[in-house]
Amino acid sequence: MHLLTFLKMYEPGWFMRVSVLLTQGVFFNGFFIAYLISPRTAHRFVGYLEEEAVLTYTRELNDLDAGRLPKWENLQAPDIAIKYWNMPDGHQSMRDLLLYIRADESKHREVNHTLGNLEQAEDPNPYVSEYRDDSSPHPAKDIRYQRPTGWERKDII
After folding, report:
1. How confident is the prediction along the chain (157 residues), in pLDDT tens digits per residue?
2. CA 51 – CA 39 distance, rounded (Å)
3. Closest of 100, 95, 107, 59 to residue 81, by C-alpha
């Protein structure tokens, strides 16, 4: 959704669209093979990519707040983003969009690092598991109990 949002904002020509599709195709196939060889390594790799995304969006927010991105200051989020994230009225600016995307990337980072910490053949997916005490910190689908480096196996198994 992040890519679709920015493609909608930029509205690139056919060359850029084809380049994006080809790049995605190459990455998908390479990642598929990597995942077959070592799921743990594949998850860890994506966790690090997501960490870089969190840092990038944080820098963008800092640049926006510092006035270094004047074209983005009054820019509204595109309709596709407003609908996807259910952005409320009054919170549909570019800054708000970057906050939503950064939160997504942050959760993706946690999920992938957590899955990289587990024994793939033995351990259940902690994001679909039910926990006896829902009030104590545990992996969740929302952002209640985030851990940037993921949940360690000993904390959830």
Report:
1. 888 888 888 888 999 999 999 999 999 999 999 999 999 999 999 999 999 999 999 999 999 999 999 999 999 999 999 999 999 999 999 999 999 999 999 999 999 999 999 998 999 999 999 888 888 899 998 888 899 999 999 988 8
2. 18
3. 100
Q: Would you call 61 helix, strand, or coil by DSSP? A: helix
Alpha-carbon Rg for the chain in angstroms: 18
What is d(CA 142, CA 144) in angstroms, rounded to the nearest whole number? 6
Question: Tokens in use for 47?
Answer: 């966790």
Distance CA 53, CA 106 (A): 8
Compute the Cα dihedral for 89, 55, 138, 125 and give only its sign.
positive
Please tell me whether residue 93 adopts helix, strand or coil conformation. Answer: strand
Rounded Cα gap, residues 85 and 103, in angstroms: 11
Q: What's the CA gap between 52 and 1, in Å, rounded? A: 17
- Bridge partners of 76, per DSSP, are 93
Distance of CA 1 to the CA centre of its chain: 10
Structure pTM? 0.90
